[in-house]
Every structure is written in structure tokens, then in C-alpha cells.
Design brief:
Blueprint (H helix, E strand, L loop, with lengths): L1 E6 L7 H12 L3 E7 L8 E4 L2 E6 L4 H4 L3 H21 L6 E5 L1 H14 L2 E6 L3 H5 L5 H14 L5 E4 L2 H10 L4 E3 L19 E6 L10 H7 L4 E6 L6 H8 L5 E5 L6 H6 L3 E4 L6 H4 L4 H9 L3 E4 L3 H9 L2 E4 L3 H13 L1 H17 L3 H21 L1
Parallel strand pairs: 1-2, 1-5, 2-4, 5-6, 6-7, 7-8, 9-10, 9-12, 10-11, 12-13, 13-14
Antiparallel strand pairs: 3-4
Helix pairs in contact: 1-16, 3-4, 12-15
């Protein structure tokens, strides 16, 4: 099949999208991607891992408008226009694969134009995500728009059980869970090589992940190093500046996703403190969990979250309250109990080997496209 993927973030920093695209190419499909590169970090066109990438940059009015909410209609139109251009140039895609709600309208328009299949890949509940910053009426519009556009979707992909239940409540379309699991990096547990106890966090720098307070908590704990990496958005500058106050905090800034696993392997444990009051985070699974699993590292996470539920089920980390004291206690516990740290890490590694790895998730993705292809041969 020929597959057109659409996403509103750069492909090069979205490991989920790149894993899906390259897995489909390995299975014999042809994949091209239209993406929204807001900050013009990448060229208009290039090829990565046998996937052709076409980028929409903010130009003209899009560059002047003060918020992405106002830019969205221009993004949808330009992506639709680019999709038609690719089709006319000979890339007669059979399926449009839309990542998240802010691409789905374009996918629906292309489906109506060419009579093709449409996949909606929901990495999160979009309305919950924008509720952190958007007024309630905008959030309501997002929820209503999603319900309406789902009528045109042929298959829904999402990331975990809570999101599966959500989409089952608003749609009768077939749904498949494809988690953000990582490729296995070893057949055996690899112990950390650094001597001083090291924590790592690579991800979103946001108040819902207890930033920047987390820096102050760990910055005052003896014999502990915290390594932080994250993109230039949200609290990037504040995290950068506050990290300079402490000798044991190492802020790396943005790093390519190819460095995530090696840096996680070099640490003793992963930390991911998520607010249980944030609806999106409460039901989500962070990339950090799966990175920790394939590296055989325990993870410190928050109670009363779905992420915490999985950690408890697999016995692969420590759960904490969303408080300074509880977080500090868990860090000290792992620092002072290397055998416990190793055992929890080995439990995480076993979970990755047996179930939580990209090899198993990839099989489900390929099966979806095999089903679509079979449907086409019947019609």
C-alpha cells in the first residue's frame, strides 16, 4: 500500500511516528509524511529511513499570527493542498494515517476527495491535553470536532486501555492499542556503569511533570545526579536557569531521540513525576516508562495514575505521592539500596523482553494494514 502520514510536529523528534513509518516500509509499504515544522528546524523536503518527508513551515500570515490555535486552519489547508499535490504527482496513496486531532480534518478532506482509507492515530485525548492552556469553550469545540470527524475514520489506533475505553464511548469504529514501546536493545540485563547514583528525565518540561520544583528537590540530595533533557518549549528556559544553581543537576537541552536509550542505559533510574490532577497525564503512559523497561532501569512515578498502576503491576519501580517528601524518600531509597534498584530494573527488563517491546506492537500495526488491504481486494 501507499500510505500518507500527517502529523503536526517534526518527524525527527517523534519516535512513535518514525517507528510506525519505518515498520510499514520494512513490511513492504511505501510511506510519505507531511508534517508541520513550526520553527523551520528542518528543510522543506528530505528523506529519512526510506520515508519521504514534506514540511509545512510558518510563512506569511502563519508567521504573524500569535498562537497555533489561529494557525491551525492554515495548517490544515496547506497540508490538504500538499496531499493533493503528492497524489497528482503520482503518489496515489491508498490510506491517510493522521496523528492526533490537529491533523484529522485534513485526512477527512483527502478521504472525501480520493475515496481512500483513513486511520486516526490518537496519541492522547486531545481535549484533555489542550485543557491545560485553552479556555473551556475551545476544549468543548475540540471534543465535538473529534466526535464528528470520527464518523469518517476506518480504524482508530490509540496507546493504552483508558484511551481505548474513551474512544469506545464515542465511536463504533474498530480500535487497536499500539503502545509507545521501544526496540529491545539487549538480550541480557546491562548494569549501569557510572558510580554515583544517577537519575534521568528526558521529556516534556511542564508544570504537570513537577517542573521546575523537581530540580530544587533533587538539587539538595547528596550523592545523587539528575540529568534532564527536553525540547525548547514550555518551561525550557526556567529549567535551564534553575539547573545552574545546583552542581548535581545536568541540563542537556534538546537531544535527538537516538541518544535517549544510550543516556538512559548510563543512569541508575528514571524519574517521571506526573500530576494526578492533570486529566491527560493521569490516564497516559509516558515514553519514559518504556525507555526504562528496555534499558532495565527502575522508574519513580506517581500514585493514582495509570502509569503508576502499570509500574505496580510489573513491580518495576517505586510509586510516590505528588509531594516533595515522598519523592525525596523514594530517591534516597534507591540510592541507598543498590540491590533493590537492580532487582526493580531487572523486573522492568523482563517486562520489556516478554511483552512491552516494539516488536510485538509492530505486529499489530502491520495487521491493521493487512486488514485494510484485504478489504480493498474484496471491493
Amino acid at each position: 500500500m501507499k500510505i500518507l502520514m500527517i502529523l503536526s510536529t517534526p518527524y525527527m523528534v517523534d519516535p512513535r511516528v518514525s517507528k510506525e513509518a519505518t515498520s510499514l516500509v520494512e513490511a513492504g509499504h511505501e510511506v510519505q509524511v507531511i508534517e508541520w515544522d513550526r520553527k523551520k528546524d528542518y528543510p522543506t523536503e528530505n528523506v529519512a529511513e526510506n520515508v519521504n518527508l514534506f514540511r509545512i513551515h510558518n510563512k506569511g500570515l502563519m508567521n504573524i499570527l500569535p498562537h497555533d490555535l489561529l494557525r491551525n486552519p492554515f495548517w490544515w489547508y496547506k497540508a490538504y493542498k500538499k496531499g493533493k499535490e503528492l497524489y497528482r504527482s503520482g503518489f496515489h496513496f491508498d490510506t491517510v494515517h493522521c496523528h492526533n486531532l490537529d491533523t484529522l480534518l485534513t485526512g477527512v478532506l483527502l478521504k472525501k476527495k480520493y475515496g481512500i482509507k483513513l486511520i486516526y492515530d490518537a496519541h492522547e485525548i486531545f481535549g484533555y491535553m489542550i485543557a491545560r492552556e485553552m479556555p473551556s469553550f475551545i476544549v468543548w469545540i475540540a471534543f465535538q470536532l473529534e466526535k464528528q470527524l470520527l464518523r469518517f475514520v476506518d480504524h482508530i489506533i490509540t496507546v493504552n486501555e483508558p484511551l481505548l475505553e474513551y474512544f469506545k464511548s464515542i465511536s463504533t469504529k474498530p480500535i487497536t492499542i499500539i503502545m509507545n514501546c521501544k526496540e529491545l536493545v539487549s538480550t541480557e540485563y546491562i548494569p549501569p556503569k557510572t558510580q554515583e547514583f544517577t537519575l534521568i528525565y528526558i521529556g516534556v518540561l511542564h508544570t504537570s511533570r513537577m517542573f521546575p520544583e523537581l530540580i530544587d528537590i533533587i538539587g539538595t540530595i547528596n550523592n545523587v545526579i539528575l540529568i534532564i533533557a527536553g525540547k525548547k518549549e514550555n518551561l525550557f528556559e526556567e529549567v535551564q536557569q534553575r539547573s545552574k544553581k545546583y552542581q548535581n543537576i545536568k541540563f542537556l537541552g534538546p537531544i535527538p531521540y537516538t541518544e535517549v536509550i544510550p543516556k538512559t542505559l548510563a543512569a541508575h533510574a528514571v524519574i517521571c513525576i506526573i500530576s494526578p490532577q492533570d486529566p491527560n497525564n493521569k490516564i497516559g503512559l509516558a515514553n519514559k516508562q518504556f525507555e526504562a523497561m528496555v534499558c532495565g532501569r527502575p522508574i519513580i512515578c506517581t500514585k493514582d495514575t495509570y502509569a503508576g498502576h502499570l509500574i505496580e503491576k510489573l513491580s518495576c519501580g517505586l510509586l510516590v505521592d505528588y509531594t516533595k517528601e515522598s519523592i525525596r524518600e523514594a530517591i534516597v531509597t534507591l540510592r541507598d539500596n543498590p540491590k533493590l534498584c537492580e532487582q526493580l530494573g531487572k523486573n522492568a527488563f523482563t517486562a520489556a523482553q516478554t511483552q512491552y517491546n516494539w516488536g510485538k506492537e509492530k505486529e499489530k500495526l502491520i495487521a491493521i494494514y493487512t486488514g485494510l488491504l484485504y478489504d480493498d481486494t474484496k471491493t
